[in-house]
Every structure is written in C-alpha cells, then in structure tokens.
Amino acid sequence: MSEVREKAELAKKSSAQLAVLTTEQKNEALSSIARSIERHADRVLEANEQDVQKGIDSGLSKALLDRLQLTDARLKDMVKGLETLIELPDPVGEVLESWERDDGLKIEKVRVPLGVIGMVYEARPNVTVDATGLGLKTGNAMLLRGSSSARHSNTALVDVIRHGLEETDVPVDAVHLVESAERSSVQEMLTLNDLVDVIIPRGGAALIQRVVRESSVPVLETGAGICHIYIDCDARAEMAQDIVVNAKTDRPAVCNAVETVLVHTSWAERHLRSLLELLRERGVDVRGCPRTQSLAPFVKQATEEDWDMEYLDMVLSFKVVDSLREAVAHIHQHGTRHSEGIVTDNRETAEAFLQQVDAACVYHNASTRFTDGFEFGFGAEIGISTQKLHARGPMGLPQLTSYKYVLRGDGHIRGGGPTSC
Amino acid sequence: MSEVREKAELAKKSSAQLAVLTTEQKNEALSSIARSIERHADRVLEANEQDVQKGIDSGLSKALLDRLQLTDARLKDMVKGLETLIELPDPVGEVLESWERDDGLKIEKVRVPLGVIGMVYEARPNVTVDATGLGLKTGNAMLLRGSSSARHSNTALVDVIRHGLEETDVPVDAVHLVESAERSSVQEMLTLNDLVDVIIPRGGAALIQRVVRESSVPVLETGAGICHIYIDCDARAEMAQDIVVNAKTDRPAVCNAVETVLVHTSWAERHLRSLLELLRERGVDVRGCPRTQSLAPFVKQATEEDWDMEYLDMVLSFKVVDSLREAVAHIHQHGTRHSEGIVTDNRETAEAFLQQVDAACVYHNASTRFTDGFEFGFGAEIGISTQKLHARGPMGLPQLTSYKYVLRGDGHIRGGGPTSC
C-alpha cells in the first residue's frame, strides 16, 4: 500500500473517534500540542535551519526564504494561534434546525465534522500547525502535504504535534504528514475519494489551479483577488482617496488589496490627477488607460494584460469609465469574484452596484482590505473562498464542518404514493 | 468557438440579469413555461415518439424505454411541478446573518444564486423541465446536457421552454441544451470553470462517477444508497419487521431503500426466522451470512460482494452481528453515507448509533424511506447529496444558492497590524 493511502486510512479511522469527542477533549489536545511546541522549540528550529540552508544553497528567492524561516517569535505565534482556537466556540454538535412532521417523526439538522481534510500547501511551515489546530478543533483528521523545501521543518512539527497528542483523547493518527516528495503523491491524495472528504490548497495560483484541475475530491478553492474599486461621479474626493490609498498600500501583497481603480469620467476630471499624484508620492507605480494618461502625463500606459493582473505589489492600474454599467461590465470580465467596492454618496447607485456585482464581498464606501476572517470577527480563518459551493469569502471554523440529519421515530414507516424517491 | 462554450457564455451573461429579478418576475416565467408546455404538448409527444421508436430499434431495455417515454400524464406532472415551485418561497435575497462592527461597518450575509448550473443527465426527459424550474426559481441559468437517446424530446422541451420565456423578464438565454452527442462535449462542460459554477449529474452510478472524476468545476454529487438497518437486541419484533418490510418493499428501485439488514444475535435467535419468512412471502430474494442461513435454510448465501451491492431490487442481505460496535464498523466499511437506521427500545444504544454512524441521514425507529426532499417538507428536491461539502442529504431550493457578503461603510479603512490577510 502506498504511503498516502496508508496514512489516509489511518486518518479516516481516527476521524470516527474524533467526531464524538467533547469540546473539552479537543481543547485539551490543542493545549497539549501548544505545550509540546514550546518544549521542543529547539528541535523545530534546528530542522528549519536545515531547510533554510538547503534553500540558500539551491538559490531560493529572498521572499521564499523569508516565508520558510521559523523564529522564536513565529513559534510563539503558532502557540498563540492554538490558544485562540481553544477560546473559540466549537461548531460541532450545534443543532442548525429541527422540526417535527405531522406524524410525529422528529428531524434534526446537526453540525458534524467534514471527516478527513487534505491540505496541500507551499513553503510556510506555520500552515502545518495552524491548519492542524483548525482541523482538530472542528473534529477533523488532517492529511498534510507541504512542499519539499520545508520538509525537515514540517516533519519536525508533525512529530511534535503527534507527541503532544499522545497524552490526550485525540488519537495520534488524526494528524499525518505525507513525506514523499514525488508529485505523484499529491496526485494520489487528490483522487482518494473514499478516504478524503475535502482538499484545501494553500499557496500560489499555480498550485491552486493544479489542485482544482486534478482533484476528484471536492476542493475548497481559495483563489486570487483581482479587486476593483469604482469611484462614482457622486464620490467625495477625500473619502475615495483614503479608501484607494488604504486598499493599495496597507498591505499590497495580499489578496484583498485593490489592483484596478475604475473612475467615473466626471469625477476623474475634477479629482483624478491629485489622487494619482498622491499615490505616486506614496511609491505606487501607477498605470492607466489613455484617458487617465491625458489627465496625468506621468502615468504609464496600461496594456490589456494589466486588467487581468494580480500585482500583489505597489502597482495600481486606472481606467476612466462613463457609467456604472461600464464599471460593472469591466469587473464582470476581469474580476475574480473576491472583493469589489464602490465609493459614492448616491445610495441608489451604491445599491445597484452591490446587487449587480457578483463577488464574495461587495463594499460601499469602505476599503476592500476588510475581507478577512479576523476583521469579520470569526476569530480564525482557513482562507478566503472564491468559489460558490459550500463557503464563500472568509472561512472560519463552521466552514470546516458539514451536517447530518438525525431522525427519531416510533416505528414510522412511509406509506402512500411515491413523490421523488 | 465550440457549441458548449458559446452556450455557456450566453448562460453566464444571462445569469447576471437573472440574479436581480424579483420573485414575481421569476414566478411569471415559470408559469409561462407551464402554459407553453400545455400549448405545445403535441409537438413534444411527437418528438418523444421519435426517440422511443429509435430506442426500440436499437434494442433499449424495457426499463429504459419506460423512463424515456412521455405521456399526457407525464407532461401534466411537469406542469404541476412548475406550479408547485411557484408556490414555494424564493430563497434568493434572504439575509442569513447581519452584524455591525464596533467601528460602524455593517456586514450582511445575503443569499444569491449560484450562477450557471450545468446538468448532465440520463434518459428521463422530465429532468429537462424539472431542473430548469428549480434553477430558474433560484435565479440560476441552466446549461443542460441530456443523453442522446432522448435528444428529440429534450430539443423539443427546451424549445418549448425558451418559447415560454420569450414573453417574460427571464432572458431566453437562461436555458440552453447542449445538442452535440459527442462525449467530448460533456468533458468540455466539466472544465469550463470560468463559466459554469456547479455541475449536477443525475443518473446511474457510472455517469456520476465519471462526472466526479473528470470535473474541475465543483460537483454536487448525488450518490448511490447502500442503506442499512441495524436491529438491536432491544428492538420490538413487530416494529423491526414493519420497518424492514417498508424500507425494502415500498419502492425497491430507489436510493433510500434498505439493502442490508444487520441483526443482533440475541434478536436473531428469537425473531429472525419469522422476519425472513415474511420477506420471502412478499417476494423478496433473501441472502444471508452463515449464521443467518443456519436459522433459515431457505436463505441463499451472501458473498462478500453482497455487502457492497446497491440492489435497487427486491433483494435483501442479512448479517448477524454480536454488538453495536460490529454493526457500526460494517456500516462504516460498506455504507455509502446515505441513510442508516437502528431499531431499538434502548435510548442509549440508539444515541450511540446516531452519533457514531457517519451518514447524511441517521434514523432511530423509522424507515430509511423518509430520506426525500418532499418527506422532509422542502416542497421540491434536486437530489440527495452523499458528499459533505455544501449540502448533505435531501437538497431543496436553498441548496441551489450561494451567498455573498455586503459591507456598508462610511469611508472605513483598515488600520493597525495585519492579522491573516
């Protein structure tokens, strides 16, 4: 039997035990993992040092090395993350709905864990601990597959996690790391429909697209964010400026940062030049359509490709439009259904935008940067879903659960004609 | 451009219009489709006659011919189905949750349509109308791909549906039939991630498995039902007997019919023989493990394959077990997570079963036959999901929707340190 199937079978078996644990039992396990990480910090940092050294030797970029690197502070963040999870309510067991039929048959819809979650992720070793914490809190077993560049770190972390579980009611087999560096091991995970209930990819667009394309197991897609802000003719100049500056410069490398600003022509004539100058002063590389350029000659020309770019950087493209309709059509064509905003003092225009734009999060007079599980008050975040099935937008703990129907009768049998089944 | 992509693009475009229609506008369209079917009944029946004749010529089985055949009564059922949908509440626009942050930013979670639903289905032409009704009621555009054996019927029905839409606010392009008989046209539908939001397969296990395997678009899997009933040592003889007879014989060809009965040894010794005799009298082909056979010699031997068979017929297999644990383990190994029941007067045993068994619907002292959208009171049913993402068990109208977050601010920008994004 392959490594992947063997570990998936153990995870599946343990998921049945996990599903019936109390919140207290799961919290104790999280706490025990946190203590284990503290106790074995040196070992984890040593293993990480091996990965970092290998990364330097093989010419990994500075950005990737930074993601790979673990420090005392980053280990403390992991521990803090687990402690936060302990404080959060456990969604499992929640009765979502209940009703009784006329014949007395009682039906309850109850939250249950998903079962086995397969995580496929890149460089950052903190995902190993963060994802395991989220999974265990919601009663799920974890099958983890990190990147080979973080192999020593992940192996050490999973050892430390499993060591922590030894003293608890959560079975050690609830957490597994796939150690094979073969690409085929990912392929195998993605097709284990009998053992894995959901695959969550975390990483760059290439990884996510590969998983979406190859997986027959249902996927929770956390996709790219080509986010837009539309400045309407009725937008206040200062508000529009503050929102655009915040949405671009607060943290340009994340998915909820704005990438393209659409500007109504009448607002553009009055205020666009000073907005562009301000952005340039803040170090933003500004690109624009010919109408934008005619208002501010220092703006570089935006090509067709710009409208489909997730810059993840201090770059912002501008397009002047003649109407709400044109703005919505541009977003429909180039957006990734992540986060889209309008700035306007006209309520009707705002409501039309909010209704017509199809995205996980739509904003009126606010920065797109709020698309975040913590900002939403979820206390934890698995990622931001850009698909429409199961969960959309920021995902918290309830999004790692399913439900089942529990029916209690007293000898109830079904009579009469068939309806659907 | 291929037929599939062209039609998917038109559907996608129309889905933006559909999403903002009122319930009244959508109901009017459903009513207009119903009238169009009544008006063009002869044309539909004529087209269907061509398919049936072709089916007879090519040696289609009697069961398949029956599914293919349309009659006045079946057309009336379609019309009645549409009229039922008009009466049902429209889930779109429902505010699922709403809250306000301390800084005054308001967040609303609102139900929205999925967008474009791709249906891949077999013989029954009624799916063409039923699925379209469900999809339009929930504001979704439909891309339909029926089987080639029903090609004339489906073409006529979609023509009649689109004709009905002409007089309404629902765009005609909201409903398309893929006419190509090439298998590659299905393949193409399953990978149109930019245009199709969800694929729903309806048909036999082979079709569903193919779709699950090949689709990169998210799938709503409506799977097979290998359902079990466990008769505990504390089960009343008559109740157990009534439930098993109902769950097997009421409608053996459907997914919620029971396929295997697990019997506690002490109940078996007292009552199993008479249950087996009763089932034989009712025309059920009874198979069993050696312990079952030793109690009733007329029982055929069940092979290992029997435990993994969805008979969909008047066949039932029996296995004697020594404990709840053994019953749960058997279900875990052989069940399809559809519907599983226990018969017992012992509350504790019942609760342990309900909690430990992982299935869409778990039953105490009731027939598994209740797993049905209409029996659940949903008023409509898309199918019964056996996956855990998005929806599980019977799916009604709300399961054809997603949600989006609508955020309303007054110049809100994000400050302070980054959390997750």
UniProtKB/TrEMBL annotation, chains A, B:
Species in which this protein is naturally found: Novibacillus thermophilus
Domain Aldehyde dehydrogenase span(s) in chain numbering: 3-284
Broad class of the protein's primary localization: cytoplasm
Role of this protein: Catalyzes the NADPH-dependent reduction of L-glutamate 5-phosphate into L-glutamate 5-semialdehyde and phosphate. The product spontaneously undergoes cyclization to form 1-pyrroline-5-carboxylate.
Alphabetical list of Pfam families matching this protein: Aldedh
The protein's annotated pathway: Amino-acid biosynthesis; L-proline biosynthesis; L-glutamate 5-semialdehyde from L-glutamate: step 2/2
Reactions catalysed: L-glutamate 5-semialdehyde + phosphate + NADP(+) = L-glutamyl 5-phosphate + NADPH + H(+)
CDD domains: ALDH_F18-19_ProA-GPR (cd07079)
SUPFAM superfamilies tied to this protein: ALDH-like
Listed GO CC annotations: cytoplasm
MF-aspect GO terms: glutamate-5-semialdehyde dehydrogenase activity; NADP binding
Family: Belongs to the gamma-glutamyl phosphate reductase family.
Keyword Oxidoreductase annotated: yes
Name used for this protein in its record: Gamma-glutamyl phosphate reductase
